[in-house]
């Protein structure tokens, strides 16, 4: 995408019928680190690769619990993601208070999409620079949605977003037909495998990865650090020959830069702090 | 002059005396008739007025048995409204206010704090006046894994209060990544109650749970948020019956002592539960609003455990 004279603000159409600012906002999502979501008949699993701003900093959170039956994974500008997650939480709490029942995933996703669209049609606003993978379980079953900065939303059986997500997508496209009847363990394994495809050198450990599960009789729960270690170990055991486990895992630069320049892709030793 | 004086002297005689003639332009009558015509009209209207006032008087005159002279001019509607405003001073059946935003649904709550546990219990009877609405309504609400609230009084206010506290607890958990502590919840409940100082929640609350150090905590409230951490308390219709038993068995330390003493009872968990069961059985005997079933919750380090105990249904 090259700079042109129709991209100053998001209230200007280009002659080709595009609004470039919205497309640039979608680029920002691609700059964030990878996040993967997949669902079976009973569960939705979200898996994310966390980034640390530097050697000394903690890994930044990418998965947020919205309600007992719903959660999101973000990719792009973390601050925008935090704001949207606060909005979603408030909506869920309000719905529970007034109607004494959980808010349907699809309804909330629509509200978020409408909120994002407003930002694409005001001269004094800018589009949200974050993509949301919304995973939830309501009375119509498990759902996985992707919310775009453009104000669109799509429902998926499996989806990946963020840096090097195409590799993860390829894995998911090969395997998605087996997801419907997969057990929870298998689903988590698939998620971690596809995430591994997006790593620079294939190093996935319990520190830089975060997995969440929600589904039938399963309130939203985040697996990180120690709770995630058994799954990572199972992965490594199964995949012993395929990927080499390195002692110097990659920790690419920050997820939410204040400037929108592409972050440097340097290999750094793991961060000193846990999130 | 004389003639005029004569005419004026007696109104009745002027009706029939002869007078100078002239023609009335409106009715066309001659003057002889005119004055008598007008006078007869006046006389007629005079008689009419007398008759009407006679009728009116007989309608609104003071009746036998009415309250007092000064009310005699009121119509029936005003009288009804006055009667409904308060009990009559002068005999007759007592009337009550027609509408109140509050109602008392009865019931009793008890809570006892121990060294590392807290017992909080409430009966399940919901009543209004002398009637039972249901035998199966819980008064207890779980706010966090370490904190429960039980409220006696007006059920609608209690439900709304519980929902509000639960919602605030969820919001706290989202922001702070941990559940609200019992101590924090106690303060928040006090603030929430005082915010409605001039239209209070008609709910008499007991908060029971485990504090930050793992010890049992009981907080007792009045309707507008004044609260105190104690070793035990009770609220509701059976309060006056149960409080003396608890005082006798658990002997409160004075809140005036310095340094403040721990009010938690040295009883074991099982003994405390037995005591609470006895309290409810006793209150159920004499208090008509307490009975049916008791829900007893025990909170300790391993979580919240519930048991029930049947009470008399009368």
From TrEMBL, chain A:
Coiled coil: none
UniProt keyword annotation of Cell inner membrane present: no
Region feature (Disordered): 238-275
Gene Ontology CC, one term: proteasome core complex, alpha-subunit complex
Domain Proteasome alpha-type subunits: 6-28
Pfam families named in the record: Proteasome, Proteasome_A_N
CDD domains with a match to the protein in the record: proteasome_alpha_type_1
Ranges of Low complexity composition bias in the record: 242-275
Tagged with keyword Chloroplast: no
SUPFAM superfamilies listed in its UniProt record: N-terminal nucleophile aminohydrolases (Ntn hydrolases)
Keywords (A to Z) from UniProt: Cytoplasm, Nucleus, Proteasome
Subcellular localization(s) per the UniProt record: Cytoplasm; Nucleus
Family annotation (InterPro entries): Ntn_hydrolases_N, Proteasome_alpha, Proteasome_alpha-type, Proteasome_alpha1, Proteasome_asu_N, Proteasome_sua/b
GO biological process assignments: ubiquitin-dependent protein catabolic process
Chief subcellular location: cytoplasm
Subunit-structure text: The 20S proteasome core is composed of 28 subunits that are arranged in four stacked rings, resulting in a barrel-shaped structure. The two end rings are each formed by seven alpha subunits, and the two central rings are each formed by seven beta subunits.
Its biological purpose: The proteasome is a multicatalytic proteinase complex which is characterized by its ability to cleave peptides with Arg, Phe, Tyr, Leu, and Glu adjacent to the leaving group at neutral or slightly basic pH.
Family: Belongs to the peptidase T1A family.
Name the record gives this protein: Proteasome subunit alpha type
Organism name: Cymbomonas tetramitiformis
Taxonomic lineage from the root: Eukaryota, Viridiplantae, Chlorophyta, Pyramimonadophyceae, Pyramimonadales
TrEMBL record, chain B:
Keyword tRNA-binding: no
GO cellular component: cytoplasm; nucleus; proteasome core complex
SUPFAM superfamilies, per database record: N-terminal nucleophile aminohydrolases (Ntn hydrolases)
Keyword Nucleotide-binding in record: no
GO biological process: proteolysis involved in protein catabolic process
Major location (coarse): cytoplasm
Domain of life, source organism: Eukaryota
Localization: Cytoplasm; Nucleus
Residues spanning the membrane: 43-60
Swiss-Prot/TrEMBL keywords: Cytoplasm, Membrane, Nucleus, Proteasome, Transmembrane, Transmembrane helix
Pfam families in UniProt: Proteasome (PF00227)
Protein family according to the UniProt entry: Belongs to the peptidase T1B family.
Subunit-structure text: Component of the proteasome complex.
Function: Component of the proteasome, a multicatalytic proteinase complex which is characterized by its ability to cleave peptides with Arg, Phe, Tyr, Leu, and Glu adjacent to the leaving group at neutral or slightly basic pH. The proteasome has an ATP-dependent proteolytic activity.
Entry protein name: Proteasome subunit beta
Organism from which the protein derives: Cymbomonas tetramitiformis
